[in-house]
Automatic annotation (TrEMBL):
<feature type="coiled-coil region">
    <location>
        <begin position="53"/>
        <end position="87"/>
    </location>
</feature>
<protein>
    <submittedName>
        <fullName>Uncharacterized protein</fullName>
    </submittedName>
</protein>
<keyword id="KW-0175">Coiled coil</keyword>
Length: 237
């Protein structure tokens, strides 16, 4: 085989190899594009799933919020029934009963803080509001909207501080964990109570007196438990 022929044969082989490489490259590119499309489809599916999960999460949050509101309304109704049971004695004035119900409803979102120092160098309400938020943060609670005001006339002692929370169920949340303040460094002397009507305070005093009588009579392990915000004598077994 002469030299030109050998060169042509070699060139043909090189061209064949190049063509094979191009074909292989085309297949590889096609496979890569196919993989990309598959990944895009998977991403789209995952995106759809994530979107549906977000919708479900939002709906779950709404349901939890609605349940919380419903629970608060049920607790209010139970409290109203208890009011009627404890106040509607034979011959009782119905108007007084309804007045008591309305009074309790108006106080349902209130809690009262005791022993919070008063500051005169700064705007009082701003300072009191920030202090209440700080106290609630210490017991693991946060509320977006709180209004506060001092009760009574100024004196040498700090006046009670009344705070209005977003819902009545928030009040129960605070009362349930208020004892945690006893283990804090800055707020261990702060006391928290619900905003009771005159009749509620009288009923509580009677319950305390009954507890003392039963203790003096020899009954042990008795304590006062609030059931639907009504003080009730219970027993530890």
């Amino acid at each position: 085989m002469d030299a030109p022929t050998e060169i042509n044969v070699t060139l043909d082989k090189i061209l064949d190899t190049v063509n094979e490489l191009k074909t292989t490259q085309g297949k590889i590119i096609s496979s890569i594009n196919s993989c990309r499309e598959s990944i895009k489809m998977q991403d789209k599916k995952y995106g759809t799933i994530e979107s549906k999960l977000d919708i479900l999460s939002n709906k779950l949050t709404e349901v939890i919020s609605e349940n919380k509101t419903l629970r608060a309304k049920i607790e209010q109704l139970e409290a109203q029934i208890k009011i009627v049971e404890t106040t509607a004695t034979p011959g009782a004035n119905v108007e007084l009963v309804y007045s008591e119900i309305m009074d309790r409803q108006s106080r349902a979102r209130n809690i009262i803080f005791f022993n919070i120092s008063e500051f005169t160098s700064l705007p009082g309400q701003l300072t009191d509001t920030s202090t209440v938020h700080e106290i609630l943060n210490c017991i693991g609670l946060q509320f977006n909207s709180i209004t506060v005001r001092r009760l009574g006339k100024q004196s040498n002692k700090p006046r009670p501080l009344l705070a209005t929370l977003p819902t009545s169920s928030d009040v129960f949340d605070v009362l349930r964990v208020k004892r945690k303040l006893l283990s804090t460094a800055n707020f261990k002397d702060i006391r928290i109570a619900s905003d009771r009507t005159t009749q509620q305070r009288q009923y509580f005093s009677k319950t305390i007196a009954q507890l003392k009588l039963r203790n003096d009579a020899g009954e042990d392990n008795l304590y006062i438990k609030f059931i639907n915000n009504v003080p009730t004598i219970s027993k530890n077994y």
